[in-house]
Every structure is written in structure tokens, then in C-alpha cells.
Amino acid sequence: MLRFTPYTAEHKSDWDAFVDGAKAPHFMHRRDYMEYHADRFEDASLLVYSDDKLVGLLPANVSQEICFSHQGLTFGGVIQQSQTMSSPLMVSLIEQLGVYLKNTGVKQLIYKSLPHIYHCRPAQEDQYALQRVGAALSAVEITTAIDLAYRGDVSSRRKRGAKKAAKAGLTFQQSDNWFAYWKILTARLQDQHNMRPVHTVEEAQLLAGRFPRNIRLFTAEQQSRILAGVVIFETLMVAHAQYIAASPEGLDVGALDGLFEYLIGQFSGEKRYLDFGISTEDQGGVLNEGLVRQKEQFGGSGIVHTAYILNL
Q1: Which end of the chain has fewer beta carbons closer than 10 Å to its terminal beta carbon, N or C?
Q2: For the chain, how many structural domains are there in total?
Q3: Do 192 and 80 share a structural domain?
Q4: Rounded CA gap, 142 and 149, in Å?
């Protein structure tokens, strides 16, 4: 039998060390990232032991008798290591997890699996195990990623934009000017979608300070004025772009086209993928065709994000 132990602060060093040695290590699964918004979620994370040996972690929270893996994270699922996990063990883990959660009063598990581009080694035993216990797909969303070793065709429109940026004398660099960029980002989101960034600028700076190697702001500038920017979340395999925005002036001079060509050059040979993020809404039910087309024009193509639902 496996033993499921609720996470407490005394487990932090063991938790973080296990994440760092995982088949798909991601800094978002470290406790310093998960706990920056601990006040918003009822943490229900678990450590899984077999004969007193740690074999898996589950970042999770509980809300209204539903266990999520995890609402504060883009994706999660069971974190596993090569030397301690096998397919039969994962099947047992998912089976026994259902029993454990049910005994704690949970009626449903929502499980967001980790996309394969983040895997340093294959790690999809959990998706097989979920099917074995009767879980059903509850969401399929699509992200657009460039395989930096085998980049797809780049459209003439994106090439023209990059040339326009070069002609306008734009420079591209990592920046610490989060406040100036967040003003552009906030205005753009407000104008286009009547929304605000999920993270405040203070939260973005806090996380970048905790993870300076993993969270970085890059900007396109003209005479030291920021015209566009993107926040990059870095793992061993992936440079993930989010919070992408340009000012009206930046749009006129192809600032984002130039910036992404710069980033592709920076990460080629260092990462396997540059991921632009999802282009879907309503758990994949709505595809923003204009947005996904723009991303594909950089030479990207589709990767799915899947979520499963298991009634207990």
C-alpha cells in the first residue's frame, strides 16, 4: 500500500529536491512559487510514499469538495522521477489516490496533465493510469510552440515585421523595468479584452526575484522607450512566452516580430521549444483563430493541454 501524506512546511526541502530531480522539472511546482498565492487556495498537496520512500508528489488544492491539481498552476499532475516510478506503480498510485480522496470527503478530481514538451524524459504514465480508473477528458486546449531544432515555415508577414523593426532601430534586451512594461500590458489588455493581467506588477517582480533564472522580462525599445515586451518562463526544455503586448507605436514598427526573432535566436541551441501559450477559451471549446494564426506564422504548431475529470 502507498501512503499519502498531506504537505506541511516541514516537507519543503524534500518537496523541492524531488521537483528538481523529476522527469519534467518545473519551477512552478516548487513551494516558493506555489505559495505566493497561498491565501487564494486551500492547499491539499500530497507526498506519496512506498515503503517510506518518496515516489511522487501531487500539487493540489480543494474547493467545494473538488480536488484540483492545481487551480493556481497552468498544469501539474503527479510529479515523478525515473528511478522511483514505473507504469504499474503509477496505476496503483492513481487507483489508491481516488480511494484516499474519497475518504477525505472529496467527490471529484480535476487533473491537469503536464504537456509533453516539458518532459526531459517521457512521463505520461499518469494519463494511462487515469484512463484505467475511468477518468474522462474534461478539457483539451491548444498551445502553439516552435520546435527550435526543426522550426516551421515563417510567413512573409512576420518577416516584414521583423525587417520593419530593424529599420526603425529597435533594440532587444532583458529588462528590469517591470513597472513601465506593465503599464503597456495593462492598457493593451484593457483595450482588447477589458481584462487585467492575472499577476499584479508587484507579484511579477516578487516571482522574478524568487526565480531570476526562470522568470525574465524581455523588451523591444526605441531610444530607451519600451514599445513591446514579453515575459519568459524558462524550464530545461521550454521558453514559455506570456504577457505579450506592444504599444500602438510598437505595433506600427513591428516590435513584437523583431522581439520574437531575437528570442528565437537567443534560445536556439539552449531550449528545445519556444511556446507561445494557448489560443483557446472555455476549456478549449472556443479557438481564437486570429491569435493562433499569428503564432503559427512564426513557424509554430500545435501542442495540446489536457485535463481529466474523475468522479469519486
Answers
A1: N
A2: 2
A3: no
A4: 21
